[in-house]
Design a protein that fits this description.
Blueprint: H1 2-9, E1 13-17, H2 19-26, E2 34-40, E3 43-48, H3 60-63, H4 71-92, H5 101-127, H6 136-146, H7 148-152, H8 165-175
Helix pairs in contact: 4-5
Length: 189
């Protein structure tokens, strides 16, 4: 059904937000960020990071700015992949005797996410002076460093999610008007 809809609209490019979305349509789980070798209904296919949490500022235009990939955007995405991998593992971790699931997740994050976050922070601090501050990459690095305390707070509480995808999805669903009648703005006459 999805492939039919894609063919019907005949886009030149097709982007999947997240590897899971791409895997659900293509059946392939072995993809990387960026352009894929798969072509759906004649459209060039891209797999993009889900624009939430830490990876929000590192977007496709930063990935495609280089012909061969690589560079700081791809390195940042590698850090984010590691963090999300740790998060999946933490959710599957069994609590020790007398430990709550939230305490178990917190402990796992402290052991595994904190070292990745420390390496990410050190890397950002190292490359920040080498990047033009008014560039898109400079903005992304500056944003990440300025929001560091907020971005890492999830490691302190096992009940907190790594990102706010669910909340943003709820907000966008409630903020999107239904297909009912539209009200005209009040007349000022």
């Amino acid at each position: 059904m999805a492939i039919f809809a894609i063919g019907r609209f005949a886009p030149a490019n097709l982007a999947f937000l997240g590897k899971a979305a791409f895997a659900a349509i293509s059946g392939r789980r072995d993809c990387d960020w960026g352009e894929q070798s798969d072509v759906f209904a004649g459209a060039r296919t891209w797999v993009l990071p889900n624009p939430s949490g830490l990876n929000r500022a590192f977007t496709l235009d930063r990935l495609t700015g280089r012909k061969k990939g690589g560079g700081p955007p791809e390195q940042a995405l590698r850090f984010f992949e590691q963090l999300y991998r740790v998060e999946r593992q933490a959710r599957n971790e069994k609590p020790d005797k007398g430990e709550t699931q939230a305490d178990c997740i917190r402990r796992f994050r402290q052991q595994h996410s904190i070292p990745v976050l420390n390496a990410l922070k050190a890397w950002l601090d190292e490359i920040e002076p080498k990047v033009l501050p008014d560039s898109k990459l400079g903005d992304a690095i500056s944003y990440t460093l300025n929001q560091w305390d907020y971005l890492t707070r999830y490691t302190e509480d096992g009940r907190m999610p790594i990102d706010n995808n669910l909340l943003e999805r709820d907000i966008s669903c409630s903020a999107t008007p239904s297909t009912g009648p539209r009200l005209a703005p009040p007349s000022t006459a």
